[in-house]
Design goal:
globular; about 70% helix; ABC transporter involved in vitamin B12 uptake, BtuC; two-stranded antiparallel sheet
Length: about 350
């Protein structure tokens, strides 16, 4: 596919979401639900970078997500910062979390990386759970959405306005994500996933590449967490829990690991499915789990990845050079590993 067609398809998706506040009522959805899709998609991208492209089992990204949410909420509650400042502080909190955990994760691979990332995430979870005086403990902490301040102008951020803030950050995240994964740095991450020893034999320090990938992923997750906390005006310990990390991973696999737009597809199905099913039955988690199982069985490479393999999805929505979904296809993974 030519760059022009790819740009047109991507622009069409953005334009479609630009009319979200008018389309969502037709689907009987509140605009805040669609905002949640865009916000969660950014967190799913952070998992996609580590798991879909680098092959690292990122089962603890909720730690950075929760740090972003608490960073924004605590700054609003105790320092009365404005809207933009809260987003920046939450994003930096996620980045700092990555800087703290990266040295412990760098030399771990496979299941050990995944278990250690979960363990550190649970440490942050119990800190938020126990420090009741600061974080509100199990009940969480509710904060008002701060004002947006520009020069001497002050404005409240309504759900309508927040939607376009979330859309703007999502577009920026997609552009950054696409640029990263299609750069030499991103190609090296894919090579690390397929055959790390061979990359080391070529004289590249894979730990440095993984370190940078961890920082990028933690920053993206922190941004998503900050936006999420300001969207619902609430921060709570379960945002740091391993269950939340599991939802991110499932959404990534569902949409298509190693695809640029798969994170949006997975987040859309998860958030919308969660919202719709929970209004129908109190056993919504069982049905949502069954939905995930069915999708994994019938779309083993994710929705976009499977359609791409069948030749029905435009390359603009996938990886046009390397089958990044091979990480979830044993036969394809073996062939890719022998070819590096």
């Amino acid at each position: 596919m030519t760059a022009r067609k790819e740009l047109l398809l991507s622009a069409a998706v953005v334009v479609l979401f630009a009319f979200g506040p008018w389309i969502s009522p037709l689907m009987h959805l509140d605009v805040s639900i669609v905002s949640g899709v865009l916000v969660i998609a950014i967190a799913v991208m952070s998992v996609n970078l580590l798991l879909g492209y680098t092959g690292l089992p990122a089962f603890g990204n909720a730690a950075y997500f929760g740090l972003g949410s608490y960073g924004a909420a605590l700054s609003v509650k105790y320092f009365q910062v404005h809207f933009a400042e809260a987003i920046v502080i939450g994003t930096v909190a996620g980045l700092l979390g990555g800087l703290i955990l990266a040295p412990f994760l760098l030399r771990r691979r496979g299941i050990y990386f995944g278990l250690l990332s979960i363990a550190f995430g649970q440490v942050f979870y119990f800190i938020a759970y126990r420090y009741t005086d600061v974080t509100g403990g199990e009940d969480g902490m509710q904060v008002p959405r701060p004002l947006f301040v520009l020069a001497n102008a002050h404005a409240t951020v309504s759900d309508f306005g927040f939607y376009y803030v979330a859309l703007a950050f999502f577009v920026i995240a997609v552009i950054a994500f696409r640029t990263i994964v299609r750069s030499p740095f991103g190609r090296t991450l894919i090579a690390i996933r397929q055959n790390e020893p061979r990359v080391r034999y070529l004289g590249l320090n894979t730990d440095r590449f993984i370190f940078v990938a961890l920082l990028i992923a933690s920053t993206m997750a922190g941004l998503s967490g900050a936006l999420s906390g300001l969207l619902i005006n609430f921060a709570f310990p379960l945002q740091l829990d391993w269950h939340q990390s599991g939802y991110f991973v499932l959404s990534m696999i569902l949409g298509g690991a190693g695809t640029v737009w798969g994170s949006l597809v997975g987040a859309f199905i998860y958030v919308i499915g969660n919202d719709i099913i929970s209004t129908i039955t109190s056993w919504w988690q069982i049905f949502l789990g069954a939905l995930f199982v069915a999708c994994v069985l019938f779309f083993p490479r994710g929705i976009l990845g499977t359609l791409q393999a069948l030749g029905r999805a435009p390359q603009a929505f996938g990886d046009d050079d390397v089958d990044a979904n091979a990480a979830f296809d044993p036969n394809a993974a073996g062939e890719a590993g022998r070819g590096v």
